[in-house]
Design brief:
With 394 residues, the protein is α+β, with helices and mostly antiparallel strands. The chain has eleven helices and nine strands.
Length: 394
Amino acid sequence: MESRAETAGGLAWRLWAVVPLVGLALAVATVVAQGDRVIDLVGGSPPPADVFDVRRVEFREGEIRILVRNPQPDDLTIASVTVDDAIVPFTLDGPATLGRLRSSTVVVPYDWVADEPIAVGVTSSTGIETVEEVAAAVLTPQPSPRGFLGYGLIGFLVGVVPVALGLLWLPSLRRADPRWLAAFMALTAGLLTFLGVDALDEAMALQAALPASLGGPGLVLLGVAASALGMTFLSARLARGRAGMSGLALAFLVALGIGVHNLGEGLAIGTSFAIGELQLGAFLVIGFMVHNVTEGLGIAAPASRGRVTLAQLAGLALVAGAPAIFGAWLGGYASNDVLAALFFGVAAGAALQVVVEVGRYVARTAPGGLRSGWVIGGFLAGIAAMWTTGLMVG
């Protein structure tokens, strides 16, 4: 009898735990179905304009391709298309009527002139036109072995080469005074703090350009939280029950955090070349190369605490630099503002979490701990170094 009573009590407890969720679902459903009547009691708001979200304009031989999305809650129908205010014929690679957040590609046969400014417009069935202005029409690169190799080489020069050069400071760091080594460890934390804040700023700027219906801030927060928690889990595994991570394990964690950030750098460079901003792309390549040499120093500082083989150093350089190659490919051939905002959010969370791990390591191993003047000076020097070299990019 007692067993049956306990079973019944346990079942009732579980059922009551579900009641708030069921009640919330019913309340939300009621608001969705009847919310307009409640809002009408305090006043009305004008309906959103029936505008499209132009995601990308591609130029190919004899045609223009316009990727549009419906950011509105109601359906939108593509009625007409204009090029430089002139109505032009078009076909659709996708549906004419788009539901919420659905996309379609407008294909316009048009003999555009290279390097000339051009404006394309997409008009909905209600007569509202969405115009996208392109500063200079440039042939959009298509996937090819030559282009694939080019973007890969650019990513290698931006990511792997400068990080590898920065790792050449390792022999000097091994012979440095313990106070100087603590300063360089703190410099690593300063570098990563700058990268984290910079990535978060970039993520917020990208999400601000997204339609409100995509929930940009939540997307960025998801990236930050997922990467930070993932790096926390990884750091716990690398510690393997010890009081703290070894120098090599921390160097790997630093390289991983930098690598996620370099993915965003490659994305920016690839996108610049894809939209025809060749001078901007070349400028970014040079600026990021100078900028990323200091990242190699940030990896070398914790690695100097232990024995490291040449193969391990090469692996660290690839972990930190190779993501720039994938970012260049992605930006060159499949640029997407939603993914870009998410990636930069991931980069921010990863970099800032590694700062925590570096801080723990410095507190445990540095003479004087985190309050040492050497540590404080090194941290500020790291931020200053990234800001100074970053001026070449901005």
